[in-house]
Amino acid sequence: RDLLVKLLRETISTWEHYTHKAKADLAEESRCWRVYLDGTTAKTRTLDRYLSERTLPIKPRWQLVIRTAKHVLENCELKAEDSEKLTEMMTALDKAFETDIDCPYCGEQISVVIEVLEESQEYIEDCQVCCRPIVFSVMLTSDDQTLVSVRSEND
Question: Is 124 within 8 Å of 153 (Cβ atoms)?
């Protein structure tokens, strides 16, 4: 979630720096976000919700953020370091995905973001409902499928 917010913020900052246009122009030109007119002022309510983890939707549409960053990369003549920064952030976000799991303790279904960093990894994250430690095992298969299994800490 943090990476999603950081990528969008960096994308908007890069856009504004290179084009001298506002984020509403980016929203409109990229066709990823709705722009509303409030009197004579363009508003980007949905995009604005993605600028803070606190207001980020429970199930954010992270592909919109990646498409917005791609729009900036394709439509602005960026310095190499700015292009690399956006590309690296996009790649990192693209490796993450959201999935629903059932807590092995309380049985509640919760949404989690999985970031695939290695072929096989294990880590602990607390349940969002009961706060007990869930052990996540993540494995990348030979055909690039990601398998996720969860168990209680004592299993």
Answer: yes
